[in-house]
Amino acid sequence: MTSSAHSPAGAQLHLVPPEINVLPNKLADFIRASDLTQWFSVPSALNYMAKFDVVKPDDFPALQRVHWCGEVLPTPALIYWMKRLPHVRFTNLYGPTEAAIASSYYTVPACPADETAAIPIGTACAGEELLVLDDRLEPVAPGEVGDLYIRGVGLSPGYWRDPERTAVVFLNNRRSADPGDRIYKTGDLARIGEDGLVYFLGRADSQIKSRGYRIELGEIEVALNAMPGLRECAVVAIRTEGFEGATICCAFVAEPGVDVTAVALRRDLAKVLPSYMLPARWSAFDRLPKNANGKIDRPALREFFQRRVVEGNPADA
Question: How far is residue 190's CA from residue 188's CA, in Å, rounded to a whole number?
Fold first, then answer.
């Protein structure tokens, strides 16, 4: 049953029934019937609805704003939404739990013309600051990749009864004389663009070295998400003992009724990426595994591909 409550501002909050979460068309029906005006969504829900083409032109007339947070929303999916809902404002939010969820925002000013264009995480929320630093905690030059840190009022005191873990990522801000001024190491990589905005580049632990090249797995996912016929994909790496150092693996889900093969995906991916970034192992799924937060369970995928290597399964599926 759908339940509702009223916020202090008088806006009605609708709780989505569990069965709707896996049925994109039902979620679209729910938004129409509820006359939602503000929608805070995980990117996977927006992506699924785009892939299943359940949004009509000028749909959801009451809807005013869509916010998303937690993962990268593929640019092709964003283009799908913005073309169909020109009356809606779309805002990308960024921030970890340790910094009160949302630490930065970027409202997309116009529908992107390029499906491979990166959407920035934008500028810091009031009272907070995004810092892109090197290994010495010095600011990196614009355009260079660095570790993303957060400073400001949104930071939590630390991890409950875990001072060792807290000390690793909640650091004193050495540019301040205030001992209570701290910065939080998010574990994400970022860069500052020529426009002065911050761009998320993926997790630091998703940057690998394979065949002597440093590779950001998120770049491969961005290229794959721009390709037609895919509903969902994830790229992970598993350790190898040979020269490669790591083997790149891709798990993918095809759109219903579309025949997508690993051979075809690799061929199309080779048109936009260098050969050293092409996954060596592929596997088709009916649905990618998800964790309790609804995000793709990448550790489970790494275990899956590692098991296939041990069992001697072929590289392409």
Answer: 7
In 3D space, the residue among 19, 66, 21 whose CA is nearest the CA of residue 41 turns out to be: 66
Structural contact between residues 288 and 301, judged by C-beta atoms closer than 8 angstroms: yes
32 burial level (CB within 10 Å; 0-12, 13-18, 19+): middle
pTM: 0.75
Maximum distance among all Cα pairs of the chain, rounded to whole angstroms = 61
CA distance 235 to 246: 12
Pairing relationship of beta strands 230-239 and 207-210 according to DSSP bridges: unpaired
Would you call 280 helix, strand, or coil by DSSP? coil
CA distance 270 to 227: 12
Virtual torsion, Cα 74, 212, 209, 280, nearest 10 deg: 60
52 in Cβ contact with 27 (< 8 Å) = no
CA distance 106 to 66: 12
Model pLDDT, residue 243: 61
**Under 8 Å between Cβ of 46 and 55:** no
Q: How confident is the model at residue 72 (pLDDT cuts 50, 70, 90)?
A: confident
Are the CB atoms for 198 and 132 separated by under 8 Å? yes
Q: Residues 6 or more apart from 22 whose CB is under 8 A from it?
A: none
CB 264 within 8 A of CB 232: no
Residues whose CB is less than 8 angstroms from the CB of residue 134 and which lie 6 or more positions away in sequence, other chains included: 140, 146, 147
Are 253 and 285 contacting, i.e. CB atoms less than 8 angstroms apart?
A: yes
The rounded Cα 79 to chain-centroid distance in angstroms is 16
Nearest to 282 by CA among 269, 265, 296: 265
- Structure-model confidence comparison of residues 14 and 268, the more confident one: 268
Where does the pLDDT of residue 225 fall: very low under 50, low under 70, confident under 90, or very high at 90 and above?
Answer: confident
- Angle, to 10 degrees, between the axis of helix 75-84 and the axis of helix 217-225? 40
Q: Which residues, 6+ apart, have CB-to-CB distance to 267 below 8 Å?
A: none
- For 193-204, the DSSP string reads -TTS-EEEEEEG
